[in-house]
Structure formats: structure tokens, C-alpha cells
Amino acid sequence: MSAAATIAIAGTGGIAFASAAWLAQAGHEVRVWSPGGRGADGLRDAPLQSTGVLEGSARVVVADTPAQALAGAKAVLIAVPVNGHRAVMDALLPALASGQTVIVSSMSSLSSLYLFEQARARGVDITVASMGTTVLTARRAGPAQVRVMTKRTELGVSALPVARADAALALCRELFGDVFVTDPNSLASALTNINPVAHGPLALFNWTRIERAENWPQYHYMTPQVAAVIGRLDAERIALAAAFGLQVRTIEAHFAKSFGTTSATLADIAAELHAKRGGPPGPTDTATRFLGEDVPYGLVFSAVLGKVAGVAMPATQTVVQTAGLILGRDLAAENDLIAPLRLEGESMQGLLARVNAA
Q1: Cα angle, residue 84 at apex, residues 161 and 104 outer, rounded to 5°
Q2: Across the chain, which distance is largest between two alpha carbons, in Å?
Q3: How far is residue 169's CA from residue 257's CA, in Å, rounded to a whole number?
Q4: For labelling alongside 112, which of 82, 145, 172, 297 has CA 20 to 30 A away?
């Protein structure tokens, strides 16, 4: 086991609780801060219990403020939905100290670049590590309980500044095991996230099931034609990455690395996962993150980058517009990172210089 360290976690959802359980059971001192104020109350008088691929219990510390959570912490893990990244980062910034590493899991819309540039503007020298998805998949099962469903077998991580990529890789391996490889930069990490391309079409084409709150296993309903639409969005994502000189793996390769699938096509992979896992269940709430988060912070972000790079993204734009139509909202306006990052009007060379900051 690696030497014990103090780790702060911002968030109290399934991923935050799973990460806390993993780190605490490995002997680290874990402090959990709830951005909403009450999400960690169940941990004040009870140990955090985990089931699934991680069985056990351990005590964690509940911090009432960011300053309490971050004081003396070696690393800070941000594990909140991406639509909360900017607000949480703004809350953490005054408490961050030079020398700390912030791990953003998972990162989207270059939220890690926002944090890094904001910290530098304050004269605070931090390292920001970005993951395109989470190390663990999990769901909260109670006030002090979490079910950990899977641990990924390979996951990319990048760093800002890029010169600290090796140190970020070593830290992530120290905390979560030898499953990490290095992404070239945070833009690559952002574009490795396949959730938006999968979740948008899956939610739209199963919308009546969501509205009726039906119990529907999502891989079973990733039918061949739905998978074909997802494939078109994925092709646009890969072309966008290539325009920036980046190579990202296909959605099929993502499933193979994450869940050990062996089928070649996405439709067959979905059938394989359904046969193996029988789930997870699809969303049953029209406020689902599949549209409310993955579209503005994933597909809208990609569409903006497409304009920067001159890459046509008609399938992506169609899903963005359809999602906005069915929700009755301007989803492009809901992304609160694009404006402060000055992405609209940015050049390819300018953005690459920023994500490759030394």
C-alpha cells in the first residue's frame, strides 16, 4: 500500500462516495465536502459502507467548508456533475494552495483549464489532472452507503501544466491503482469522454420511456439503428480530435477497455453488455443528466470546437437542437464554461497553446 495521504473530495454523489470508500479503505485520510451543504451528513456518525466490487467500511471526515477540506491535503478530487464544476471550482479556489494537485473526475468542457487558469491568475501554482471519465462506476445506496459497480481497466489522465504529466500519472496510480495511461493534454481528455455521444441519442430515442418512468435496461434499448446514430456522433468526435492533432479511441474501443467487451460493432457490444450485466437501468426522470448535462457540456462544447477547427458536425448539431426542442430549453446557453474560457472566437493555435501550457 502507498504511504497514507490526506485527500479532499468535493462531492457526495455515487462517484464521490465510491472514491472516498476506495481511498479510505486503502488507509488514506479522506475529507468529504458537500457543495450542497447536507450531502455528507450521513457520514458524520457512521462509517462509509461499500458493496459490489469493493466490500467494506471505513470512516471519513466530513468537512463543513472548502478550507477545512483542503487544509494540508495532498490532492483534491472534484467528483460532481459537470454542470456544477464552475461553481465548485470557484468555491475551492480561495482555499487552494500552491503544490496541491486537483483531480477532475470526470472532466468535460475543459473545466480543468478553467480551474488552472483561474488559479494562475491568483498566483497559486497547482497541478490539475483530468480524466475523461471516472475510475469507478457507482451509485449511492443510502446516507452512508455506496454500491461500486465496476473499476475501469484503463483510463487516460492529462495534466496542466503538461510538464507535470508524469507526476499526475504517478499520483493517480498511487491513489487508484495501475490502470492509468497518459493523455497528451486536457483537450484530449475532454474528447475521450464518450458519454455525450452515447447518452444524447439513447435518451432521445427512448424519451417516452423516460417520461413514463419505465424500467428500461439501457443497453437493451441501444438497438442497431440507435447505435448507428451514436456511431455518427462518434465519427464526428474522432474527426474533431484529429483536426487538433489528437487521436482518441472509438466508442467500441472505450467499451472494450472499460468493460472487457469483445464484440466488434456497437450494437453487438450493447447486446453483450445487456447479457452480462442486465443494466444499468436507463433514466426515469426528464431532468436526466443524459440531456441536461451531456448535451450542453459535451455536444454543445464539441460543436463550438467544430467551429474553431472548421469541422462540420451535422449529427452533433441535430442532437443538440432536438434535445433543446424536447426539453424546451436553449441548451447551448446552459454551458457556463464556454464564455469564461473564451472558446468562441478562439483559434486552434491559441487553444492548443493553452492546453499545452508549460
Answers
A1: 30
A2: 55
A3: 18
A4: 145
Cis peptide leading into residue 161 (ω within 30°): yes
3-class SS of residue 271 = helix
Residue with C-alpha cell 492509468? 180
Angle between helices 195-204 and 314-327 (to 10 degrees): 50
Q: Which domains are seen in the chain, by residue range? A: 6-189 (3.40.50.720), 194-355 (1.10.1040.10)
Is pTM, for the whole model, over 0.90? yes
Question: Between vectors from CA 289 to CA 286 and to CA 290, what angle results, nearest 5°?
Answer: 85
CA distance 345 to 201: 28
3-class secondary structure, 131: strand
Convert the pLDDT of each residue in 76-127 to its tens digit. 999 999 999 999 999 999 999 999 999 999 899 999 999 999 999 999 999 9
Cβ atoms within 10 A of the Cβ of 345, count? Answer: 8
Residue 177 has phi, psi (to 5 degrees) of 105, 170
What's the N-to-C CA distance of the chain in angstroms? 32
Distance CA 54, CA 294 (A): 28
SS3 217: strand
CA 29 from chain center: how many Å?
23
